[in-house]
Amino acid sequence: MQTLLHLTSLKLVLLSLVVLLGIVIWRYSATALYGEAEKARFMRALTATLAAVMVTLLSNHLVLFWLGWVAISLSVQQLLLFYPERPRAQLAAHKKALSARLGELLLALAMLLLYLEFDTASINELLLQLSQTSEASAMLHSAALLLVAVALLKCAQLPLHGWLIQVVEAPTPVSALLHAGIINLGGILLLLFAPLLSLSPLATAVLLFAALISTFLAALIMTTRVSIKVRLAWSTVAQMGLMLVEIALGLYTLALLHLLAHSCYKAYAFLHSGNAVNHYLAAQLADQIEPSAKHWFAAIILAALLTGLTHFIVPLASLASSVLLILAITVLLLPSLSRADSHRLQRCLLASSYALGLLTLYLLGKTCLSAIMPTPQGSTFVADVLSSLVFIILFVVAVLLRYHASQPALNQLFIWLNAGGYLDEWATRLTLKIWPYKATTPQSKTASSQLKEPL
Protein backbone atom coordinates (compact mmCIF):
# COMPACT_ATOMS: atom_id res chain seq x y z
CA MET A 1 0.00 0.00 0.00
CA GLN A 2 2.87 2.35 0.64
CA THR A 3 3.81 2.27 -3.02
CA LEU A 4 0.25 2.78 -4.25
CA LEU A 5 -0.82 5.61 -1.94
CA HIS A 6 1.13 8.61 -0.72
CA LEU A 7 0.18 11.69 1.28
CA THR A 8 1.93 15.04 0.86
CA SER A 9 1.16 18.46 2.33
CA LEU A 10 -0.47 19.54 -0.95
CA LYS A 11 -2.63 16.41 -1.05
CA LEU A 12 -3.57 16.90 2.61
CA VAL A 13 -4.88 20.40 1.85
CA LEU A 14 -6.83 19.13 -1.14
CA LEU A 15 -8.24 16.19 0.82
CA SER A 16 -9.36 18.55 3.59
CA LEU A 17 -11.21 20.57 0.97
CA VAL A 18 -12.85 17.41 -0.43
CA VAL A 19 -13.95 16.29 3.04
CA LEU A 20 -15.39 19.73 3.85
CA LEU A 21 -17.29 19.97 0.58
CA GLY A 22 -18.39 16.35 0.84
CA ILE A 23 -19.93 16.83 4.30
CA VAL A 24 -21.73 20.04 3.28
CA ILE A 25 -23.08 18.67 -0.01
CA TRP A 26 -24.04 15.35 1.60
CA ARG A 27 -26.09 17.05 4.31
CA TYR A 28 -27.71 19.41 1.82
CA SER A 29 -28.59 16.49 -0.47
CA ALA A 30 -30.09 14.46 2.36
CA THR A 31 -32.47 17.35 3.07
CA ALA A 32 -33.13 18.60 -0.46
CA LEU A 33 -33.94 15.16 -1.85
CA TYR A 34 -36.18 14.11 1.03
CA GLY A 35 -39.11 12.20 -0.42
CA GLU A 36 -37.41 11.48 -3.75
CA ALA A 37 -37.98 7.89 -4.83
CA GLU A 38 -34.41 7.63 -6.18
CA LYS A 39 -32.69 9.37 -3.28
CA ALA A 40 -30.71 6.24 -2.33
CA ARG A 41 -29.35 5.97 -5.89
CA PHE A 42 -28.25 9.60 -5.77
CA MET A 43 -26.50 9.20 -2.41
CA ARG A 44 -24.67 6.08 -3.63
CA ALA A 45 -23.41 7.93 -6.71
CA LEU A 46 -22.36 10.90 -4.56
CA THR A 47 -20.45 8.61 -2.20
CA ALA A 48 -18.76 6.87 -5.12
CA THR A 49 -17.72 10.22 -6.59
CA LEU A 50 -16.18 11.47 -3.34
CA ALA A 51 -14.40 8.15 -2.79
CA ALA A 52 -13.00 8.21 -6.33
CA VAL A 53 -11.69 11.75 -5.84
CA MET A 54 -9.91 10.74 -2.63
CA VAL A 55 -8.34 7.68 -4.24
CA THR A 56 -7.15 9.77 -7.18
CA LEU A 57 -5.57 12.39 -4.93
CA LEU A 58 -3.85 9.80 -2.74
CA SER A 59 -2.65 7.56 -5.58
CA ASN A 60 1.08 7.18 -6.10
CA HIS A 61 0.82 4.95 -9.17
CA LEU A 62 0.04 6.08 -12.70
CA VAL A 63 -2.44 3.28 -13.34
CA LEU A 64 -4.26 3.82 -10.04
CA PHE A 65 -4.39 7.55 -10.71
CA TRP A 66 -5.90 6.93 -14.16
CA LEU A 67 -8.43 4.44 -12.81
CA GLY A 68 -9.51 6.93 -10.14
CA TRP A 69 -9.81 9.63 -12.79
CA VAL A 70 -12.09 7.39 -14.89
CA ALA A 71 -14.13 6.39 -11.83
CA ILE A 72 -14.82 10.06 -11.08
CA SER A 73 -16.24 10.60 -14.57
CA LEU A 74 -18.40 7.47 -14.46
CA SER A 75 -19.89 8.26 -11.06
CA VAL A 76 -20.53 11.91 -12.02
CA GLN A 77 -22.35 10.63 -15.10
CA GLN A 78 -24.84 8.89 -12.83
CA LEU A 79 -25.43 12.14 -10.95
CA LEU A 80 -25.98 14.09 -14.16
CA LEU A 81 -28.66 11.59 -15.21
CA PHE A 82 -30.53 11.63 -11.91
CA TYR A 83 -33.49 12.94 -13.93
CA PRO A 84 -32.92 10.85 -17.07
CA GLU A 85 -36.20 11.89 -18.65
CA ARG A 86 -35.04 15.49 -19.14
CA PRO A 87 -33.72 15.96 -22.70
CA ARG A 88 -31.31 18.76 -21.75
CA ALA A 89 -29.90 16.64 -18.92
CA GLN A 90 -29.37 13.80 -21.41
CA LEU A 91 -27.63 16.12 -23.85
CA ALA A 92 -25.37 17.57 -21.13
CA ALA A 93 -24.46 14.09 -19.90
CA HIS A 94 -23.81 12.93 -23.47
CA LYS A 95 -21.47 15.86 -24.21
CA LYS A 96 -19.77 15.42 -20.83
CA ALA A 97 -19.22 11.72 -21.55
CA LEU A 98 -17.56 12.43 -24.90
CA SER A 99 -15.31 15.09 -23.33
CA ALA A 100 -14.47 12.73 -20.46
CA ARG A 101 -13.58 9.80 -22.74
CA LEU A 102 -11.31 12.04 -24.82
CA GLY A 103 -9.63 13.38 -21.68
CA GLU A 104 -9.12 9.88 -20.30
CA LEU A 105 -7.51 8.75 -23.55
CA LEU A 106 -5.15 11.73 -23.59
CA LEU A 107 -4.29 11.21 -19.92
CA ALA A 108 -3.47 7.55 -20.57
CA LEU A 109 -1.17 8.56 -23.45
CA ALA A 110 0.57 11.15 -21.28
CA MET A 111 1.16 8.63 -18.51
CA LEU A 112 2.42 6.06 -21.00
CA LEU A 113 4.97 8.58 -22.28
CA LEU A 114 6.09 9.38 -18.74
CA TYR A 115 6.47 5.68 -17.99
CA LEU A 116 8.52 5.11 -21.15
CA GLU A 117 10.71 8.12 -20.39
CA PHE A 118 11.55 7.27 -16.76
CA ASP A 119 10.80 3.52 -16.65
CA THR A 120 8.71 3.83 -13.49
CA ALA A 121 4.99 4.10 -12.70
CA SER A 122 5.58 5.64 -9.26
CA ILE A 123 4.39 9.25 -9.30
CA ASN A 124 6.80 10.25 -6.53
CA GLU A 125 9.73 8.78 -8.43
CA LEU A 126 8.58 10.52 -11.61
CA LEU A 127 8.35 13.89 -9.89
CA LEU A 128 11.77 13.39 -8.31
CA GLN A 129 13.37 12.64 -11.66
CA LEU A 130 11.53 15.53 -13.28
CA SER A 131 12.85 17.94 -10.64
CA GLN A 132 16.38 16.78 -11.50
CA THR A 133 15.86 17.18 -15.26
CA SER A 134 17.20 20.39 -16.77
CA GLU A 135 15.96 19.99 -20.35
CA ALA A 136 12.85 18.22 -21.59
CA SER A 137 12.97 15.63 -24.34
CA ALA A 138 10.45 15.42 -27.17
CA MET A 139 8.61 12.76 -25.19
CA LEU A 140 8.32 15.01 -22.14
CA HIS A 141 7.11 17.94 -24.26
CA SER A 142 4.44 15.66 -25.72
CA ALA A 143 3.40 14.45 -22.27
CA ALA A 144 3.14 18.04 -21.02
CA LEU A 145 1.00 19.05 -24.01
CA LEU A 146 -1.28 16.09 -23.40
CA LEU A 147 -1.70 17.03 -19.72
CA VAL A 148 -2.53 20.60 -20.76
CA ALA A 149 -5.20 19.29 -23.14
CA VAL A 150 -6.64 17.10 -20.36
CA ALA A 151 -6.76 20.07 -17.98
CA LEU A 152 -8.50 22.28 -20.55
CA LEU A 153 -11.10 19.58 -21.15
CA LYS A 154 -11.66 18.91 -17.45
CA CYS A 155 -12.00 22.62 -16.67
CA ALA A 156 -14.64 23.00 -19.42
CA GLN A 157 -12.76 25.64 -21.35
CA LEU A 158 -14.21 27.07 -24.54
CA PRO A 159 -15.46 25.80 -26.94
CA LEU A 160 -16.10 22.45 -25.14
CA HIS A 161 -17.88 24.13 -22.24
CA GLY A 162 -21.52 23.52 -23.08
CA TRP A 163 -22.03 20.53 -20.82
CA LEU A 164 -21.10 22.58 -17.77
CA ILE A 165 -23.66 25.27 -18.61
CA GLN A 166 -26.39 22.68 -19.18
CA VAL A 167 -25.87 20.61 -16.04
CA VAL A 168 -28.15 23.06 -14.23
CA GLU A 169 -30.81 20.51 -15.25
CA ALA A 170 -29.36 18.23 -12.57
CA PRO A 171 -30.21 18.72 -8.86
CA THR A 172 -28.56 21.68 -7.13
CA PRO A 173 -26.14 19.46 -5.10
CA VAL A 174 -24.77 18.11 -8.39
CA SER A 175 -24.08 21.65 -9.63
CA ALA A 176 -22.37 22.47 -6.33
CA LEU A 177 -20.24 19.30 -6.51
CA LEU A 178 -19.21 19.96 -10.11
CA HIS A 179 -18.49 23.68 -9.84
CA ALA A 180 -16.88 23.53 -6.40
CA GLY A 181 -14.93 20.31 -6.77
CA ILE A 182 -14.84 18.17 -9.91
CA ILE A 183 -14.17 21.07 -12.26
CA ASN A 184 -10.99 21.87 -10.31
CA LEU A 185 -9.39 18.53 -11.19
CA GLY A 186 -7.78 20.00 -14.30
CA GLY A 187 -5.92 22.57 -12.21
CA ILE A 188 -5.08 19.96 -9.57
CA LEU A 189 -3.60 17.72 -12.28
CA LEU A 190 -1.28 20.48 -13.48
CA LEU A 191 -0.29 21.42 -9.92
CA LEU A 192 0.55 17.79 -9.12
CA PHE A 193 2.68 17.56 -12.27
CA ALA A 194 4.03 21.12 -12.05
CA PRO A 195 7.69 19.98 -12.47
CA LEU A 196 6.78 18.57 -15.89
CA LEU A 197 4.89 21.69 -16.97
CA SER A 198 7.76 23.96 -15.94
CA LEU A 199 10.09 22.03 -18.28
CA SER A 200 7.97 22.68 -21.37
CA PRO A 201 7.66 26.31 -22.54
CA LEU A 202 5.58 25.08 -25.49
CA ALA A 203 2.96 23.45 -23.26
CA THR A 204 2.95 26.51 -21.00
CA ALA A 205 2.38 28.82 -23.97
CA VAL A 206 -0.50 26.69 -25.28
CA LEU A 207 -2.08 26.67 -21.81
CA LEU A 208 -1.68 30.44 -21.45
CA PHE A 209 -3.25 31.35 -24.80
CA ALA A 210 -6.14 28.87 -24.54
CA ALA A 211 -6.95 29.87 -20.95
CA LEU A 212 -6.68 33.61 -21.67
CA ILE A 213 -9.13 33.38 -24.57
CA SER A 214 -11.54 31.27 -22.54
CA THR A 215 -11.33 33.61 -19.54
CA PHE A 216 -11.89 36.70 -21.67
CA LEU A 217 -14.95 35.38 -23.51
CA ALA A 218 -16.54 33.54 -20.58
CA ALA A 219 -16.26 36.55 -18.28
CA LEU A 220 -17.95 38.80 -20.85
CA ILE A 221 -20.65 36.25 -21.67
CA MET A 222 -21.41 35.92 -17.95
CA THR A 223 -22.30 39.62 -17.74
CA THR A 224 -25.07 39.21 -20.35
CA ARG A 225 -26.91 36.37 -18.57
CA VAL A 226 -29.95 36.78 -16.31
CA SER A 227 -30.39 33.28 -14.87
CA ILE A 228 -28.53 33.00 -11.57
CA LYS A 229 -27.35 29.42 -12.11
CA VAL A 230 -26.30 30.11 -15.70
CA ARG A 231 -24.32 33.16 -14.58
CA LEU A 232 -22.63 31.04 -11.94
CA ALA A 233 -21.82 28.40 -14.55
CA TRP A 234 -20.22 30.92 -16.90
CA SER A 235 -18.40 32.38 -13.91
CA THR A 236 -16.92 28.94 -13.25
CA VAL A 237 -15.62 28.69 -16.82
CA ALA A 238 -14.00 32.12 -16.46
CA GLN A 239 -12.56 31.37 -13.02
CA MET A 240 -11.13 28.04 -14.16
CA GLY A 241 -9.55 29.81 -17.10
CA LEU A 242 -8.03 32.38 -14.77
CA MET A 243 -6.65 29.63 -12.52
CA LEU A 244 -5.06 27.95 -15.56
CA VAL A 245 -3.56 31.31 -16.59
CA GLU A 246 -1.99 31.58 -13.13
CA ILE A 247 -0.53 28.09 -13.52
CA ALA A 248 0.80 28.96 -16.97
CA LEU A 249 2.47 32.04 -15.49
CA GLY A 250 4.13 29.86 -12.85
CA LEU A 251 2.09 31.37 -10.02
CA TYR A 252 1.44 28.03 -8.35
CA THR A 253 0.79 29.44 -4.87
CA LEU A 254 -1.76 31.91 -6.22
CA ALA A 255 -3.40 29.17 -8.31
CA LEU A 256 -3.81 26.92 -5.25
CA LEU A 257 -5.25 29.81 -3.22
CA HIS A 258 -7.59 30.60 -6.10
CA LEU A 259 -8.67 26.96 -6.29
CA LEU A 260 -9.49 26.76 -2.58
CA ALA A 261 -11.32 30.08 -2.47
CA HIS A 262 -13.30 29.37 -5.64
CA SER A 263 -14.37 25.95 -4.38
CA CYS A 264 -15.73 27.31 -1.11
CA TYR A 265 -17.44 30.24 -2.82
CA LYS A 266 -19.10 28.16 -5.54
CA ALA A 267 -20.36 25.56 -3.07
CA TYR A 268 -21.95 28.35 -1.06
CA ALA A 269 -23.27 30.15 -4.15
CA PHE A 270 -25.04 27.11 -5.63
CA LEU A 271 -26.39 25.78 -2.35
CA HIS A 272 -27.56 29.31 -1.53
CA SER A 273 -28.79 30.11 -5.07
CA GLY A 274 -32.40 30.49 -3.93
CA ASN A 275 -31.54 33.54 -1.84
CA ALA A 276 -29.22 34.79 -4.60
CA VAL A 277 -32.33 35.45 -6.69
CA ASN A 278 -33.62 37.87 -4.04
CA HIS A 279 -30.25 39.63 -3.87
CA TYR A 280 -30.18 39.96 -7.67
CA LEU A 281 -33.71 41.40 -7.80
CA ALA A 282 -32.86 43.86 -5.04
CA ALA A 283 -29.79 45.00 -6.98
CA GLN A 284 -31.89 45.42 -10.13
CA LEU A 285 -34.43 47.57 -8.28
CA ALA A 286 -31.72 49.80 -6.82
CA ASP A 287 -30.75 52.99 -8.65
CA GLN A 288 -28.06 52.41 -11.25
CA ILE A 289 -25.56 55.24 -10.98
CA GLU A 290 -22.95 55.51 -13.71
CA PRO A 291 -19.61 56.48 -12.14
CA SER A 292 -17.95 59.57 -13.52
CA ALA A 293 -14.34 59.77 -14.67
CA LYS A 294 -13.23 61.25 -11.34
CA HIS A 295 -14.87 58.38 -9.46
CA TRP A 296 -13.02 55.85 -11.60
CA PHE A 297 -9.76 57.72 -11.13
CA ALA A 298 -10.17 57.93 -7.35
CA ALA A 299 -11.09 54.23 -7.07
CA ILE A 300 -8.13 53.12 -9.20
CA ILE A 301 -5.67 55.31 -7.28
CA LEU A 302 -6.92 54.07 -3.91
CA ALA A 303 -6.85 50.46 -5.16
CA ALA A 304 -3.29 50.94 -6.42
CA LEU A 305 -2.23 52.33 -3.03
CA LEU A 306 -3.76 49.39 -1.16
CA THR A 307 -2.15 46.94 -3.59
CA GLY A 308 1.18 48.72 -3.20
CA LEU A 309 0.90 48.32 0.56
CA THR A 310 0.26 44.62 0.04
CA HIS A 311 3.29 44.36 -2.22
CA PHE A 312 5.40 46.11 0.40
CA ILE A 313 4.45 43.52 3.02
CA VAL A 314 4.53 40.43 0.80
CA PRO A 315 5.98 41.04 -2.70
CA LEU A 316 3.61 40.11 -5.51
CA ALA A 317 5.04 37.55 -7.90
CA SER A 318 4.03 39.20 -11.18
CA LEU A 319 2.55 42.24 -12.87
CA ALA A 320 -0.55 40.25 -13.81
CA SER A 321 -1.37 39.43 -10.18
CA SER A 322 -0.96 43.12 -9.27
CA VAL A 323 -3.31 44.16 -12.08
CA LEU A 324 -5.91 41.63 -10.95
CA LEU A 325 -5.81 42.93 -7.38
CA ILE A 326 -6.07 46.57 -8.48
CA LEU A 327 -9.05 45.86 -10.75
CA ALA A 328 -10.83 43.77 -8.11
CA ILE A 329 -10.41 46.41 -5.41
CA THR A 330 -11.48 49.13 -7.85
CA VAL A 331 -14.81 47.37 -8.41
CA LEU A 332 -15.21 46.99 -4.65
CA LEU A 333 -14.55 50.66 -3.89
CA LEU A 334 -16.37 52.26 -6.82
CA PRO A 335 -20.00 52.05 -5.55
CA SER A 336 -19.13 53.83 -2.31
CA LEU A 337 -17.48 56.67 -4.24
CA SER A 338 -20.16 57.05 -6.90
CA ARG A 339 -23.19 57.84 -4.75
CA ALA A 340 -23.05 61.45 -3.54
CA ASP A 341 -24.94 61.83 -0.25
CA SER A 342 -24.25 62.49 3.41
CA HIS A 343 -23.12 58.89 4.03
CA ARG A 344 -20.42 58.77 1.35
CA LEU A 345 -17.55 59.07 3.84
CA GLN A 346 -18.86 56.22 6.00
CA ARG A 347 -19.37 54.02 2.94
CA CYS A 348 -15.85 54.76 1.69
CA LEU A 349 -14.36 53.91 5.06
CA LEU A 350 -16.39 50.70 5.26
CA ALA A 351 -15.44 49.68 1.70
CA SER A 352 -11.77 50.45 2.36
CA SER A 353 -11.85 48.42 5.57
CA TYR A 354 -13.46 45.55 3.69
CA ALA A 355 -10.79 45.76 0.98
CA LEU A 356 -8.05 45.74 3.63
CA GLY A 357 -9.64 42.71 5.25
CA LEU A 358 -9.70 40.83 1.94
CA LEU A 359 -6.09 41.77 1.24
CA THR A 360 -5.13 40.56 4.70
CA LEU A 361 -6.80 37.22 4.02
CA TYR A 362 -4.99 37.11 0.69
CA LEU A 363 -1.63 37.71 2.38
CA LEU A 364 -2.31 35.10 5.06
CA GLY A 365 -3.45 32.53 2.53
CA LYS A 366 -0.53 33.14 0.23
CA THR A 367 1.96 32.99 3.11
CA CYS A 368 0.56 29.72 4.43
CA LEU A 369 0.33 28.05 1.02
CA SER A 370 3.73 29.20 -0.22
CA ALA A 371 5.39 26.41 1.77
CA ILE A 372 2.95 23.83 0.36
CA MET A 373 2.94 24.91 -3.29
CA PRO A 374 5.87 27.27 -3.81
CA THR A 375 6.31 29.38 -6.93
CA PRO A 376 9.74 28.29 -8.17
CA GLN A 377 10.25 31.07 -10.72
CA GLY A 378 8.47 34.06 -12.12
CA SER A 379 6.75 34.11 -15.49
CA THR A 380 8.39 35.46 -18.61
CA PHE A 381 8.10 39.19 -19.23
CA VAL A 382 6.11 38.76 -22.45
CA ALA A 383 3.60 36.37 -20.89
CA ASP A 384 3.20 38.62 -17.85
CA VAL A 385 2.58 41.76 -19.91
CA LEU A 386 0.25 39.95 -22.32
CA SER A 387 -1.87 38.60 -19.47
CA SER A 388 -2.01 42.02 -17.83
CA LEU A 389 -3.18 43.66 -21.07
CA VAL A 390 -5.90 41.03 -21.54
CA PHE A 391 -7.16 41.62 -17.99
CA ILE A 392 -7.27 45.40 -18.54
CA ILE A 393 -9.07 45.07 -21.89
CA LEU A 394 -11.55 42.65 -20.32
CA PHE A 395 -12.25 45.13 -17.54
CA VAL A 396 -12.79 48.03 -19.95
CA VAL A 397 -15.08 46.07 -22.28
CA ALA A 398 -17.13 44.78 -19.33
CA VAL A 399 -17.61 48.35 -18.05
CA LEU A 400 -18.64 49.58 -21.51
CA LEU A 401 -21.15 46.74 -21.86
CA ARG A 402 -22.65 47.52 -18.49
CA TYR A 403 -23.13 51.25 -18.95
CA HIS A 404 -23.21 51.78 -22.72
CA ALA A 405 -24.73 48.60 -24.16
CA SER A 406 -27.23 50.70 -26.17
CA GLN A 407 -24.49 51.92 -28.49
CA PRO A 408 -24.80 50.16 -31.89
CA ALA A 409 -21.40 48.44 -31.88
CA LEU A 410 -21.65 47.43 -28.23
CA ASN A 411 -25.23 46.27 -28.74
CA GLN A 412 -24.12 43.91 -31.51
CA LEU A 413 -21.36 42.61 -29.25
CA PHE A 414 -23.88 42.16 -26.44
CA ILE A 415 -26.18 40.10 -28.68
CA TRP A 416 -23.27 37.91 -29.81
CA LEU A 417 -22.12 37.39 -26.25
CA ASN A 418 -25.65 36.69 -25.04
CA ALA A 419 -25.72 33.84 -27.55
CA GLY A 420 -22.46 32.54 -26.12
CA GLY A 421 -20.69 33.37 -29.35
CA TYR A 422 -22.64 30.43 -30.85
CA LEU A 423 -19.70 28.29 -29.75
CA ASP A 424 -21.80 25.70 -27.97
CA GLU A 425 -24.08 25.26 -30.97
CA TRP A 426 -21.07 24.52 -33.14
CA ALA A 427 -19.59 22.16 -30.57
CA THR A 428 -22.94 20.39 -30.07
CA ARG A 429 -23.40 19.76 -33.79
CA LEU A 430 -19.86 18.41 -34.01
CA THR A 431 -20.41 16.24 -30.93
CA LEU A 432 -23.62 14.74 -32.27
CA LYS A 433 -21.98 14.10 -35.62
CA ILE A 434 -19.09 12.23 -33.97
CA TRP A 435 -21.22 10.42 -31.40
CA PRO A 436 -24.97 10.66 -32.14
CA TYR A 437 -27.55 9.66 -29.59
CA LYS A 438 -31.32 9.45 -29.32
CA ALA A 439 -32.98 11.17 -26.40
CA THR A 440 -35.40 9.06 -24.42
CA THR A 441 -38.66 10.52 -23.15
CA PRO A 442 -41.14 9.39 -20.52
CA GLN A 443 -43.63 8.65 -23.32
CA SER A 444 -41.19 6.42 -25.21
CA LYS A 445 -40.32 4.63 -21.98
CA THR A 446 -43.98 4.00 -21.23
CA ALA A 447 -44.60 2.78 -24.74
CA SER A 448 -41.65 0.42 -24.68
CA SER A 449 -42.69 -0.96 -21.30
CA GLN A 450 -46.21 -1.57 -22.63
CA LEU A 451 -44.80 -3.49 -25.60
CA LYS A 452 -42.91 -5.77 -23.25
CA GLU A 453 -45.99 -6.54 -21.21
CA PRO A 454 -47.88 -9.70 -22.19
CA LEU A 455 -51.16 -9.19 -24.04
Automatic annotation (TrEMBL):
Keywords: Cell membrane, Membrane, Transmembrane, Transmembrane helix, Transport. It is found in: Cell membrane; Endomembrane system; Membrane. Residues 59-278 form the NADH:quinone oxidoreductase/Mrp antiporter transmembrane domain. It comes from the Bacteria. InterPro entries: ND/Mrp_TM, NU5C-like, Transporter_DabB. Signal peptide: none annotated. The chain crosses the membrane at residues 12-30, 64-82, 102-118, 138-156, 176-196, 202-221, 242-261, 319-337, 349-373, 385-403. It is a multi-pass membrane protein. Belongs to the inorganic carbon transporter (TC 9.A.2) DabB family. Part of an energy-coupled inorganic carbon pump. Forms a complex with DabA. This is Probable inorganic carbon transporter subunit DabB. It comes from Alishewanella maricola. The lineage of its organism: Bacteria, Pseudomonadati, Pseudomonadota, Gammaproteobacteria, Alteromonadales. The gene is dabB.
